[in-house]
Amino acid sequence: MSCNDCNKVGDPRYDELQVYIDSLRDKPHFESYLIAVLHRAQGLFGYLSEETMNYVSCDMNIPTAQIWGVATFYHFFNLAEQGKHTVSVCMGTACYVKGAAEVLETLKKELGVEVGETSADKIFTLDEARCVGACGLAPVMMIDDEIYGDLTPDKVVAIIKKYREKAKGAA
Amino acid sequence: MTTDQITIYINNKQYQIKKGQTIMKAADSLGYHIPRLCYHPKLSIEGACRVCIVEVEGAKSFVASCAAPVVDGMRIRTNTKAVRQARRDIVELILDNHPQDCHTCERDGNCELQRLSSSMGISERFFEGQRKHYEQDISSKSVVRNPNKCILCGRCVRMCSQIQKVTNLGLAGRGFQTVVMPAFDQGMEDSVCVNCGQCINICPTAAFLEQGHSEAVFDLLNDDSLVKVVNVAPSVRAAIGESFGLEAGKNCEGQIFASLRKLGFDYVFDTNFTADLTIMEEAAELVQRVTTGGVLPMITSCSPGWVKCLEQFHPDMVAHLSTCKSPMSMAGAIIKTYFAGKISVDPKKMVNVGIMPCTAKKYEAARPEMNTNGNISTDYSLTTRELAWMIKSAGIDFVNIKPEEPDNPIGLSSGAGVIFGATGGVMEAAIRTAYHMITGKEMGEVKVEAVRGFEGIKEAALDVDGMEVRVAVAHGLGNAAKLMDIVKKHPEKYHFIEIMACPGGCIGGGGQPYPMTNSIPLDEKSLAKRASALYNSDDANELRRSHENPFIKTLYEEFLGEPLSEKSHKLLHTHYQQRGPNGIIPKEIEPLSA
After folding, report:
1. Is A104 an 8 Å CB contact of chain B?
2. Which of B113, B57, B112 is nearest to B80 (CA)?
3. How far is B478 from chain A (nearest CA, A)?
4. Domain total for chain B?
5. B465: in domain
6. Which of B160, B177, B184, B579 is the best substitution to test chain A (most A C-beta atoms within 10 A)?
7. Which of these three, B211, B231, B255, is where a domain ends?
8. pLDDT for B117-142, tens place per residue?
9. Which domain holds residue B544?
10. Domain A85-170 adopts which CATH fold?
């Protein structure tokens, strides 16, 4: 390990990240693989924590301010721990016209979060999506890979309740 | 005609120029000043603001002249109606997202955006754009970050990473939500910011400012129960005149001392004196390290931005830093002990203000290890800009005021003290006295030309009575980083190193006056003028060496004993700590052996 600041010996995910970074080290413009490394890190940890970004900074010798710039630029990167399920409300034109804003407000109230945040019980992360290609069902939301259409505030609450009970039952 | 010459046309006039340059550079050399904002000659080309667009015949759209190279036969128009209109629209759009509070803004009258707007002929606002609403970051003792005033030109980010190699600032987020900030949106206080303040100097608006203390100092000056003491750093006198419209390089020390008395300070001292004192201690420390096998190379510690930089990025090298406090902190220590005793005043009833070219001095003043017998040594440290504002605000006619002398015993200084303000000056001053300490003789020629000037890294090998002393000088933290790489590879290469955090040394400090119209931050010509004010003052001084200063001699006789005495160590020396910023360097640090 070239990085002993982060002291992550023992966490196999860091070992895996290390192996990946080392495999890139001899490539031309090694530092240009930052996005790929962050991508891999998010795959391993689910999100990019300060700890993880510090680790990458040490190991790739890239200042944290630059890593932070990349991590905040791309929508793909999560900077906070994600819930078990990701709820994405479609904000495309058709859904918007058919009341997506109301759906989103209901979810914010029901989950107690703003867009991009994770509920206190760590079950849901609320997100916005552009058109998901199901305009005929507008307004729609996706929970993970499942699409729910023709939504009303009442339907949204019922669906969330179902997921919550299932998650709590599993736990 | 040689092959590297090409023909271009600017505004229908034909020119022969060298190929391989940008349109902007070519136009500059031909006397056409194209308006610009994000461009800076010392930084990489960003092409972000589009203010410098020109018309190029055959091009589909306007061309950013800072980034586009000239091509043979190119026909460029800089001032057509269409390009003027487009440029004006661009600046208007920037203004539409900018707070409309010029009349209460600290940069009013000194703002590049304001100047640009006026030169575009913008006299009306047509759009009401979206505004930014971020909290100001006031966590730092030195630098305030205000994203609401930021126009995202990125000059501070490039300054911080390319010139200073600190890379504390980055652009986070995207689009209109982009904000210049340290990693993880940390406060400046917790970040790797070294407080050098170069972001303030390079910012075209007021997105970065010093943490202001001038109102607090006005309050102190109105408190009759306190004895008010002030000391003025060498480089302040070489630059403050610019704030009053005087030409760069005019030495205004007499006007400063007179103005400070008019402001209400009871004792007006000169930090030049404690620069002499620093040299006595630092030269003695160098001689001791050289003769007793101490840690070498020894590195100067006057620049608080550099000290924090070393503690963070080169923590294995803290033992190389001279233990001497800076002239400002030595002044505080002497004022609150020796001088307090002389005038029989309780140091708790004294306030000491440092007038500094520097924002990092505010951070230094707040470091607890700088305290003297439990009292803060420097109650407030003001920048040159803050003092200039106080003088104006108090209605003092700085330009016409009758020059005065500083008070003794912390007033008279040698020429060695004043050159501290320019890169290489501390080195030169230390050599003059170290030579005497080693040989018992005086140097024939006091000038050490090899360490003067604005070369990034300067080296010299000096013959001290048969012994070779190898020295190096770096200014700007990017150059310091290069020099540290050399030292880590070749630990034996130098005995003594001077490093100043700011380009040019203190004369280019983060607290110095904003560049005047038609000059740019870091402009070497104005830095050279400021430096010449200090070197001329040295030349004009009968005393050229710190150890010749009669008040220094008296201070040692009456109070300190000798350099590196127990008392000197207690009052004038300090210690450092290894700081491990997240993600930059390992936490467990092996000290680099000498």
Report:
1. no
2. B57
3. 14
4. 3
5. yes
6. B184
7. B211
8. 999 999 888 888 889 999 999 999 99
9. 215-572
10. Glutaredoxin (3.40.30)
